[in-house]
Amino acid sequence: MGGDLFLRACRGEPVERVPVWIMRQAGRYLPEYRALRARHDFLTLCKTPELAAEVTLQPVRRLGVDAAIVFADILLPLEAMGAELRFLAGGGPHFPAPVRRREDLARLRRPDVGASLGYVFDALRRVRAELDGRVPVIGFGGTPWTLAAYLVEGGGSKQFEHLLGWSYADPAGLGELLDRIAEVSADYLAGQLAAGAQAIQLFDTWGGLLDRARWDALARPPLERVIARLRRDHPGAPLIYYIHGGAHLLPALAGLPVDVLSVDWRLPLTEVRRIVGPGKALQGNLDPAALLAPIPEIERRTEALLAEGAGGSHVANLGHGILKETPPEHAAAFVRAVKERSAAAARR
Ligand code: CP3
Question: What distance in angstroms lies between residue 73's CA and the mean position of ligand 1's atoms?
């Protein structure tokens, strides 16, 4: 019964306590991850199903989270489309040949995702077998807009001048890139569900760069095509949409056909819920930096988070990925506090 707690909360069904997992829960704050990373580079970890499955399970063992998330990266499908991808020594992604104008689109292909990204599907199959129903496994990808942000800039960016410049100068050309990415993303995410992922999270880390009218015009149509394809092929799988810095988009996001809205920490969940209405479960939204505080403060803030989430379905999480400086026992304290305090609240 407990094994599907997270999935039930995503669907808005009754739960005996609030489920919890942590964005980027597999990663550099964990010594067992750093030990493997010392021997293999990041892309090798992603592309070796045995290693990716092992890293996926590390936080499940150590923290007791209610969901696993497959170890991979949102940028992998762009590499499969033909864009060379490197991860620099400092950790940041880099595309040496960014796509910045219509002519560049000729360099991209629609790959057979089974052939080029099958390592992610293999990792998912392994994780499902090893978890044996104890907790569900989440698949994920970036939204077309957020993937385009990296591919056009050539990596991370402060101003996103290439992306935003292109969006004003030739929106139809950028729209074509977004469509191409959406097509491949739909294949890739449907493939993750076919391989055993039980929910999908779509990361829109850079959706908040756009005002509401431009998000509706540019980012939404390709995203809705990805969602429609997943709904058609896998109607039972919960879909989670994550937005960073997107409080101004909430009125538009209320109508996005996903089950769960995952938000950053800048608005309390009570206010998010007031704007988006009762139709969606909310995921989040503790400030990742709060896990740097002493454990009693983490417990106090977690209790406050649970109170804010209590007006509807809630999946406890951070508002963005866990910081690599986080002591693992602080992450464990957050997970434990959610479990104990939300179970106690449910009994009252
Ligand atoms: O949540 C998990 O544990 C699953 C694994 C996961 C990774 N990346 C592994 C990773 C997930 C869900 C992601 C998503 C991702 N990747 C996003 C969206 C979420 C967000 O943070 O907004 C984005 C924008 C990326 C692209 C990316 N990958 C960046 C910008 C970086 C460098 C910055 C950083 O945090 O290191 C990466 C590298 C990356 N992806 C690492 C991990 C564990 C670190 C690589 C290393 O070990 O050196």
Answer: 6
